[in-house]
């Protein structure tokens, strides 16, 4: 799993108890997972179809830096499924795990699913040997 981006927990990200609001972290996960999927497939026309199990394991607080680890779980003809782990940059403690985030490549005009043209083997090779 590659940890590709980070965010600083700010006051407007907190819930009534002073910890990172679950809804904010889910918003960030959807955005980060989209960026990852879009970069992997080299496609912009992706929509979130499904987010599976979400497990909150620890809290984050104002001033914490959280980082997002993303990995490809499976590749379909029109879809890409990823897993996202959010952890505290300083402590390396997992804050949240979102499994089975499914993105579907769509035609930008008709909004219907379209093949993205990539295989898991091709995408795994990109992860191992990123372009220079």
Automatic annotation (TrEMBL):
The UniProt keywords, alphabetically, are: Hydrolase
Residue ranges for the region (Disordered) are 110-132
Query: Would you kindly state one Gene Ontology biological process term found in this protein's UniProt entry?
Result: fatty acid catabolic process
Any idea which GO molecular function terms this record carries? Answer: long-chain fatty acyl-CoA hydrolase activity
- HotDog ACOT-type domain mapped to chain residues: 1-109
Annotated InterPro entries: Cytosol_ACT (IPR040170), HOTDOG_ACOT (IPR033120), HotDog_dom_sf (IPR029069), Thioestr_dom (IPR006683)
**Which PROSITE patterns does the entry link to?**
HOTDOG_ACOT
GO CC field: cytosol
Bias class Basic and acidic residues marks the residues at: 118-132
Query: Could you tell me which SUPFAM superfamilies the record lists for this protein?
Result: Thioesterase/thiol ester dehydrase-isomerase (SSF54637)
Similarity-based family? Belongs to the acyl coenzyme A hydrolase family.
This protein is called: Acyl-CoA thioesterase
């Amino acid at each position: 799993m590659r940890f590709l981006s980070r965010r600083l927990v700010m006051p407007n990200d907190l819930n009534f108890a002073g910890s990172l609001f679950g809804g904010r972290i889910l918003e960030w996960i959807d955005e980060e997972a989209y960026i990852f999927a879009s970069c992997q497939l080299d496609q912009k026309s992706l929509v979130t179809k499904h987010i599976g199990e979400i497990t909150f394991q620890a809290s984050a607080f104002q001033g914490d830096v959280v980082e997002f680890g993303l990995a490809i779980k499976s590749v379909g003809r029109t879809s890409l499924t990823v897993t996202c782990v959010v952890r505290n940059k300083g402590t390396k403690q997992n804050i949240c795990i979102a499994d089975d985030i499914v993105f579907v490549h769509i035609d930008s005009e008709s909004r219907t699913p379209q093949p993205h043209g990539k295989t898991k083997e091709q995408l795994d090779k990109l992860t191992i040997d990123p372009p220079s």
